[in-house]
Structure formats: structure tokens, C-alpha cells
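Technical annex B. To support the medicinal chemistry partners, we prepared a structural model of the target in complex with FE2/S2 (inorganic) cluster, based solely on the information shown next.
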Amino acid sequence: MALTDQQIAEITRLTSHYRQKSGAAVEALKMVQRTSRWVSDEDLGAVASLLDMSPDSLDGVATFHNLIYRQPVGRHVILVCDSVSCWIMGCRLLGDHLRRQLEVQWGGTTADDRFTLLPVVCLGACDHAPTVMVDEDLHGEVTPAKLDQALEGYR
Ligand code: FES
């Protein structure tokens, strides 16, 4: 999908805040992702050109950033923290529970396209471990039952 005129205008506006256009890379990728859920090679190439970057350099930025998706994802993305505090507090059980409930493996998307399940490094809320992020929403002190209830809210 090619960038829309509105997306091009927005990226141009974002770059005006930076001395180098590449400073707007993450924001530009996130903006594109808000529309398409993920960033295709075609979109990445178009954004790179607007930022005066090579596609490879921009892909490096996208790959480094956990919340930029370079493959199609479902309507909602569930990120399960598997760093040390969450590991100690039982994130593995949460992951097992989700994989069973949703019938997907890590990195997979449910058959109805509703959820994609991904592991993630520390979400920065270790004192609320175990943590799970659904889209932009952080859920702390999560149990399988609390998670099931929370996921009901994501259609
Ligand atoms: S280790 Fe999970 S939020 Fe920090």
C-alpha cells in the first residue's frame, strides 16, 4: 500500500522538528503503522525516501524498536514481558495459558485475526510483574483469570 497524501504530509511535518530528517524515523513508522497495523517493505521504502535514509537503515531502526511490526499482526497485539522480574513472577504460565486459550504459538495470530501474541523485553513496570501490554494498555500483576477478563475488552 502506497503512503497516502495525508501520511506524506504528516511525515513532512514530523521531520520539520528535527535537524536531520532521520530523527523522525520512529514517529513516522508508528504513524504509518497506526493505519496499516504493520509496516510493509513498500511503506518502509516510501518512508525511508521521505527521511533521506536508505531502506536498510530504516529497517534497522524498525527492527530495534519492539513496537514496530514488520509482519502483519492481528487487530490487537498482546506483548508478554519475559524479562527477569516477570519471569520470577510467572510470565511463563501466562504465556502457556495464552497459547492454549488463543490456539497460537509465539509470533502467531489467531484464526479470527483478533490477537497476535508476542514476547517482549522489560516493559518498565517490574514492580507490577508479571506484566502484559495489549496494544497501548499496560496490565500489571496479571493472572490468567485477570487476563482472560481483560482480553474480553478487545474485539
Ligand atoms: S521485567 Fe517485566 S516489566 Fe520489567
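Notes passed to the chemistry partners:
The chain has two domains: 5-64, 76-151.
The chain has a mean pLDDT of 95.
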